[in-house]
Amino acid sequence: MSQLKPYENHRDISSPNRNIAPITTEINENNQLVVGGCVISDLAKRYGTPLYILDEATIRASCKAYKSSLEKYYKGDSLPIYASKANSSLVISSIISSEGLGLDAVSEGELITALKGGLKGENIVLHGNNKSKHELQLAYNNKVKIIIDNYHDIEILKSIVPSEGTAAEVMLRFTPGIECHTHEYIRTGHLDSKFGFDPEELEKVLIDLKNYSFVRLIGLHAHIGSQIFELQPHIDLVGVMVEALKLARKLGHPVSDLNIGGGLGIKYINSDDPPSIENWIKVISEALNSSCSENNISLPRLMCEPGRSLVATSGITIYEIGSRKDIPGVRTYLSVDGGMSDNPRPITYQSEYSACLLDKPFSKTEEKVTIAGKHCESGDVLLKDFALPKSKSGDFLGVFGTGAYNFSMSSNYNRIPRPAAVIVSNGHAEIIQRRELSEDLLRYDLLPDRFITND
Ligand SMILES: Cc1ncc(COP(=O)(O)O)c(C=O)c1O
Predict the structure, then answer these.
(1) How far is the CA of 263 from the centre of ligand 1 (A)?
(2) How many Å apart are CA 192 and CA 304, to the nearest integer?
(3) 319 - beta bridge partners?
(4) Measured between alpha carbons, how far is 162 from 357 in angstroms, rounded to an integer?
(5) Coil, helix or strand for 325?
(6) Domain 57-310: CATH class, spelled out
(7) How confident is the model over 228-285, as pLDDT tens digits?
(8) Relative to the CA of 263, which ligand 1 atom is closest?
């Protein structure tokens, strides 16, 4: 395993969101892709395909970048929390906890995964625009901070918290009037969003909350979008949030936490150029440091909620190439053994990815191919007109940047079982999610007696 070459020429080890491949990616002397010290095509043979791979070092480096940057640039207390909707599992929860981050959950499932993975309730926040009574009860019992999204949450909490019991610690989510999707953003008075309180409602709800002893408002929250490359929207967000903080404190709320959400983008393809984690945190921290000083208010604890930028580039999905269809003058389709059920992002958002053949990642590209999934859907395409070396059936293809919103958004469309997931580190590979079997998919089917035929 000597003479390994780095995969990308300008790899940013301190900000993994700026690389396409995991930070430990190398090419060995046999021209094979190696991640976390493991030859990836060997893992494909050992564990089968499709296969999700996660590089532990990349996740840990991202956590460290958020933590150390906050410590370096923000003058008050801080806590980065991981938006576990990006990829929720016991192992990731355990890594997040051991790196000293908190976690954002949006359902009972994400909540119990975080708790069982080792996170303390007080370092978890519960989101959701329609939380059930059961989810709120679970959060309250475990001292999880509840992000109040609407009056429905408040009504349920009233029925949960015993009259002599400890008040639930809550944060209030509002829509800040900044809408940001990928490369563009707009500022509006109101947002057409199902999440959080409208800015016009903010004062009323803050006044109402003062009258309720079953809740204690300790924080404010806003989130403006995802896969964002610009810095200005978050600077503007800080300004809006400081105004809300002043109002809440003026009304007597002991607000100590300001949660500015997630959203930092990652590099999926060569032309993507997201800011580094350090720069993102620096800009936000400086905006908040100076805004608090100008307004003569004490610094809140600064929280942020990155999902994608913490885990996406730790992930690669491995497929085996199967059939080939050449349509002269139109395009060539190569079909793989997975697709939209393990990665719904291309068909949902027209997202683009980068890929390579595992056993000739650097070979000269010879043809443009369209990588199609195996699902019964014409739009089930993972990469369109992508340049690859010549390949044959049985070769393995690795698609980069699949650590976020792939497994967590996967489905069983066409009754296709979910892939296994493996974590790699220092030459070891460990299964963290068992491969589903087709029989598993029948677990919840029932066939009432009258449908059972004897012949
Ligand atoms: C409330 C909230 N926080 C955090 C995130 C994480 O965002 P990202 O993965 O872009 O960092 C999201 C994602 O949409 C979100 O809705």
Answers:
(1) 6
(2) 23
(3) 397
(4) 59
(5) strand
(6) alpha beta
(7) 999 999 999 999 999 999 999 999 999 999 999 999 999 999 999 999 999 999 999 9
(8) 10
Q: Which residue has the tokens 């390949």?
A: 391
Ligand 1: residues with CB < 6 A are 83, 86, 104, 127, 223, 226, 261-264, 305-309
Q: What is the pLDDT of residue 180?
A: 77
Q: Is the pLDDT of residue 1 over 60?
A: no
Which one-letter DSSP state was computed for residue 400? E
Residue 140 is classified by DSSP as H
Six token digits for residue 11? 């790899």
Give domain limits for the chain: 5-56+312-441, 57-310
- Nearest atom within ligand 1 for CA of residue 86: 9
Nearest atom of ligand 1 to the alpha carbon of 405? 9
Could you read off the pLDDT of 103-147 as tens digits, one per residue? 999 999 999 999 999 999 999 999 999 999 999 999 999 999 999
Which residues have a catalytic role annotated?
A: 376
Which of 17, 59, 62, 85 maximizes ligand 1 atoms within 8 Å of its Cβ, making it the mutation to test the pocket? Answer: 85
Q: How far is the CA of 436 from the centre of ligand 1 (A)?
A: 28
- Cβ 60 vs Cβ 82: under 8 Å: no
Compute, in angstroms, the gap from residue 104 CA to the centroid of ligand 1.
Answer: 9
Ligand 1 atom with minimal separation from the 221 CA: 1
CA of 264 to the centre of ligand 1 (A): 9
Nearest protein Cα to ligand 1, atom 13: 226
Amino acid found at 133: K
**Those residues with Cβ within 8 angstroms of residue 141's Cβ, 6 or more apart along the chain or in another chain:** none
Question: How close is the Cα of 392 to the center of ligand 1, in Å?
Answer: 39
Single pTM value for the model: 0.96
Alpha-carbon gap, residue 440 to 419, rounded angstroms? 13
Q: Which of 79, 103, 226 to probe ligand 1 with, by most ligand atoms within 8 A of CB?
A: 226
Identify the architecture of domain 5-56+312-441 in CATH: Beta Barrel (2.40)
- For the record, the structure tokens of 361 come out as 């990642």
Report H helices in 133-251. 133-141, 151-160, 202-210, 232-250
Which tokens hold the place of 34?
Answer: 């190696």
> How far from the centroid of its chain's Cα atoms is residue 109's Cα?
15
Nearest Cα to Cα of residue 361 among 21, 50, 19, 51: 21
Among candidates 317, 371, 315, 320, which has minimal Cα distance to 347?
Answer: 371
User: What's the gap in Å between 83 CA and the centre of ligand 1?
Assistant: 6
Ligand 1 atom having least distance to the Cα of 306: 11
Pairing of strands 124-126, 102-105: parallel
Q: Whose CA is nearest to atom 5 of ligand 1?
A: 262
